[in-house]
Every structure is written in structure tokens, then in C-alpha cells.
């Protein structure tokens, strides 16, 4: 699969066979996808959501505060100057233009709820209902590419009923996000956890498990970008062979690293 130009990263899933399950792919993703504000302790990305999609990102990590029956995007206590409605709009617009693609979206409640008259799940359902039913995956098992091209697959990381998406709790996830310092032993511990999960994903069951590896980390003494600079170098060296790596959620990925994950698809 060649991804030497921008247009190919926008449509890279067109090269994936229809009968492939989502569980059989290597998928570049971002952690705290919308976290552009809050300075070094909080910022995790530099690209906007649309720029990430254009660059080939297909797993996104969306965190919403439940406030006044609305869903503003937050990272911890820091608002990110966006709302879940904007996320859905950008996502469906991208998929309309690139119908061979699929977006997987972890959706999680963030920070403290305030001044609500309904549950988080009810508010999310209301947002989703503003979009055509066919634009959001509504099956109950991991789909094939043919089932979900042009669709959003929401991975529900919250309690409550929904008539769309899949439970995030069913994924096989590695997220050792607490990295106490930039000392080699702490970076090494983080990298070992990341590498081990990627190896597990490459060797595990093909059609029954969806793997997710977070290469991100943070603490009061180690900010996301500094950790990403180190871990992303390890990732780039490691992802040099074709394998099924599952979804890889990164902070500050560059185009070359995203392309490596795309091109590792078998």
C-alpha cells in the first residue's frame, strides 16, 4: 500500500479488502484527539480533527464534559474550545467525501458533570440522532470493512443504553499513561508496556479481539510532548515490518509515523 501523497492518506482504507474485519488492521490514532489547549501540561496534539483525518488518523479519542445538557470537549478541567456537535459534523463531512474510510471513536465522559437534567448517555444519544442513521454503525459485533465504509464506529466508554456503537470495555487495551519522569527507567517502562501490547496485537486472535495501544503518557514532571518525542522514536523504529498492530493512539504523531502504521497493514 503506497501512501506517498496527501490524497492517498485521505483514502488509505480503499486499499483494505472488503472482507477484512476491523480487528485485522493496523490503525493510526491519537490520544486526547482534541487537546490543543492548556499549554505543555495538557496539550497532546497540534493538528485539528480535520487535519488528523486527512493525515490518515482513523482512531480518535474524544472526551466530553457533561455540562448543562451539552457536551463541550475537555481535557481534565481544561475546555478545548469545541463541542461534540462539531466533532460529529467534521467526522461525517470527512466520511461523505471519503466513503471508503471508517472512523473509530472512543467517547468518554471527562471532568465533573454540572447542571444536567438527563444522563450522559441520553445527551450523547440526542447528539447522535441529529445525524442520518446510516452514518453511524449500529451493529453488535466487530464489522468487516464492507459493513462500515463511510461510517463512524463509536466505542462507548460510558454507562447507559445506546442504539449505536460498541462497548469500549470489550477492547483489549494497554494504557500505562502515568510516566513519573523523563528518566530512562520510566521511559523504558512505558515503552516496554507499549511494545508488549503491540506484540500481543500482532499475534492474537484475528477476528474476535480489537486491540488498542496508547503510546501516550504524562505526569507533573513529564509533559505529553516530551514523552511523545521519546516514545514516538521507539515506535518508528519498531513498526518497520508488516503486522496487525491494532489501533495505536499517539500524542503528536508526525506524517512519517502515521504512514508507517498505515503501510504495515498486511
UniProtKB/TrEMBL annotation:
Pfam families: PI-PLC-X (PF00388)
Residue ranges of domain Phosphatidylinositol-specific phospholipase C X in the record: 18-157
A single BP term in Gene Ontology: lipid metabolic process
MF-aspect GO terms: phosphoric diester hydrolase activity
Ranges annotated as spanning the membrane: none
Coiled-coil ranges from the UniProt annotation: none
InterPro entries named in the record: PI-PLC_domain (IPR051057), PLC-like_Pdiesterase_TIM-brl (IPR017946), PLipase_C_PInositol-sp_X_dom (IPR000909)
PROSITE patterns named among the record's database cross-references: PIPLC_X_DOMAIN
Domain of life: Eukaryota
Name listed for the protein in its UniProt record: Phosphatidylinositol-specific phospholipase C X domain-containing protein
Lineage: Eukaryota, Metazoa, Echinodermata, Eleutherozoa, Asterozoa
